[in-house]
Amino acid sequence: MEQTRSENATHSPTVSAVIINYNTAELTKRCVDSLEESAYPITEILVVDNASDEADQDKLTASLSHTDLHFLSENRGFAGGCNYGVRKATGDYIFFLNSDAVIISDTVTKLVEDLKLSSVGAVVPQVRLEHDHDLIDKGIGALDELGFGWHPHHLRPVGAEEVPDETCETLWGSGCAMLVDCAVFDELGGFDEDFFMYVEDLEFCLRLQEDGWTVLYEPDSVVFHGFSQSVKQKVDYGKNSFQIYHQNINRAKMLTKHFPLTLLAKGLPILILSFLYWNLILAWRDGIVQATRAFSCELQYAVRGLREREAGRNMEWTTEIQSKSFAEYVGIGLDKEDFYKTVKDDNE
């Protein structure tokens, strides 16, 4: 059943911005500065620090003394940090923005206009690369039958024919920059905090649609994003066990929590191969102990997903799941390997 929002809730919505800081004080300062230049008034800017180093916290305090700062005693991950920020926020709408991203004057205005539509639960902008404003980083979100989410227009030119130039629905959008209705976010329980990092935005968008809400992509709203600056200072992309580990355990839960059981059963052999492949990569890079830990957590998360499945959900979104051949999945795995090596070289 399609959800609708009352007119009173959309008359003149206030917006709270939530930014997660983890050893990125200088980037966070720049992000906050851009929000303060927004044509649409930002009621409050909440910066949630995920237990950064003391030196970084000192920088944050010195440079953003006028901002609503919250220092957590432990790193709760992206999902946990965002949920904390929402609990402290007072706005009708919440604007999640990565610390390594900046907006332009009318970014938020266009997102708010879209979110006022009665059936819309979240809106995402067109995210472009900061080092090349003519290339897209994130936008429309796609999903395949193995639970891998991606942005099909990543690194495509802004004016490319295949890139939508009008507002449209999308299966999911990146939490790098996302405007959500606070009441809807709370009603759905926020981001799943089992997802320490990665996949939490995709999973939340699936819950939105299963509850009758739509997710919109707004190409006229633009955000500029630095490539993984918000995490790379603490993640060795050369080995990248952090990303592989979290993406795969989260993928395991997302699959069993949301995908039709018939689809999971049909694709079980290649699903098993996909998890085996990445666990072998972990074993090769970090040893059998790390790979065994990942395998154990994948099983635990898969069981959690099954336990959290809800009956009576709107499953229309499943028609957007894309199928690929075995050869294509092999290519994806090899491409990811090349990607990790490239990022390592860039960071050295």
Describe the structure.
- The chain crosses the membrane at residues 263-284.
- This is Glycosyltransferase AglI.
- Keywords: Glycosyltransferase, Membrane, Transferase, Transmembrane, Transmembrane helix.
- Pfam families: Glyco_trans_2_3, Glycos_transf_2.
- Its EC number is 2.4.1.-.
- The protein has 348 residues and is of the alpha/beta class.
- It has two domains: 12-229, Spore Coat Polysaccharide Biosynthesis Protein SpsA, Chain A; 241-347, no CATH class.
- The chain is built from twelve helices and twelve strands.
- The protein has helices at 25-36, 54-63, 77-88, 107-115, 182-187, 200-210, 229-232, 241-258, 261-266, 268-286, 288-307, 326-347, and strands at residues 15-21, 44-49, 68-71, 93-97, 101-103, 120-129, 132-138, 142-143, 149-150, 168-169, 177-181, 214-225.
- Strands 1, 2, 3, 4, 5, 6, 7, 10, 11 and 12 form a ten-stranded mixed beta sheet that branches.
- A hairpin with a 2-residue loop joins β6 (120-129) and β7.
- α8 (241-258) packs antiparallel against α10.
- The longest helix is centred in the C-terminal third of the chain and has 22 residues, at 326-347.
- It is globular and about 55 Å long.
